[in-house]
Amino acid sequence: MAVAVTTIDAAELVSWFERDGRDLPWRDPAVSAWQILVSEFMLQQTPVARVLPIWLDWVARWPTPSATAAAGPAAVLRAWGKLGYPRRAKRLHECAAVIADEYDDVVPADVETLLTLPGIGSYTARAVACFAYGQWVPVVDTNVRRVVARAVHGQAEAGSPSANRDEAQVAALLPNDATTPTFSAALMELGAVICTARAPQCGRCPLSSCAWRQAGHPAGEPVRKRVQKYAGTDRQVRGKLLDVLRGSTVPVARAQLDLAWLSDTVQRDRALDSLLVDGLIEQTDDGRFALCGEGE
Ligand code: SF4
Hints:
It comes from [Mycobacterium] burgundiense. Pfam families: EndIII_4Fe-2S, HHH, HhH-GPD. It catalyses: Hydrolyzes free adenine bases from 7,8-dihydro-8-oxoguanine:adenine mismatched double-stranded DNA, leaving an apurinic site. Residues 42-193 form the HhH-GPD domain. This protein has 15 helices and 2 strands. The longest helix is centred in the first third of the chain and has 16 residues, at 87-102. A hairpin with a 5-residue loop joins β1 (281-283) and β2 (289-291). It starts with 9 loop residues before the first helix and ends in a 5-residue tail after the last strand. Helix content is 51%, strand content 2%. It is mainly alpha-helical and 296 residues long. Iron/sulfur cluster binds at residues 147, 150-151, 194-195, 200-202, 205, 207, 210, 212-213. Residues 147, 150-151, 194-195, 200-202, 205, 207, 210, 212-213 line the site of iron/sulfur cluster.
């Protein structure tokens, strides 16, 4: 059976979000563009609950790009804590330095300039332009793609990402008024808390029209999700090695690092090499190891 394409009632979605959206601190109108950018870096691969305490501490300590840049990469890596994927912290520090030096400590407002900054890809550039500066640009993440696939196209799953197509589909839904940023945040919120991947709560959904619901929730193609395990991976070993260096204010001998992962020495050596290659750690002249910037 062909599923009718529908649209999303912007006023309906926006009023639900204003009433029921989560009260997340980076959504406060008083929060600066830099602080919104920091939240987007952190939220890329880490859930909200883990980001919250780190973000609050971060923006209190380093409220501006120049403050972050001046803190140095090692302090930034320490403050990143257990958010995971620590290359993001290094890129965020590099981004802060460029904004402080080249943009007078002000986050650029246009997508093209944002895209030239370290660590900023298509999603983050559009999220900052939209949420920090109220620009009319589509912001597309996994949650948004899923909501649009279901509510607009009547499909259970979003299918493979295609930046141009996905952005065009979301752009076609954006209201042409001052509610654009709220609409974009609401679309993401709906996918995060109601129209979730595994258990959409259609009974609580604010949308009065949804193509997938109206079609009787037809099943989609089975989706093979890649399960991201952590235990035993190089990511875990890298985290353990970084923990040792985060906990020391002086360079650490190789023997001390070796104690962090004893079960597979080949894997440990590989993880250590990759941290050096990524520039997250460095080696002193006498062969000890330190966080980047602390190996003098
Ligand atoms: S009605 Fe159900 S499937 Fe449709 S957008 Fe709402 S939660 Fe998602």
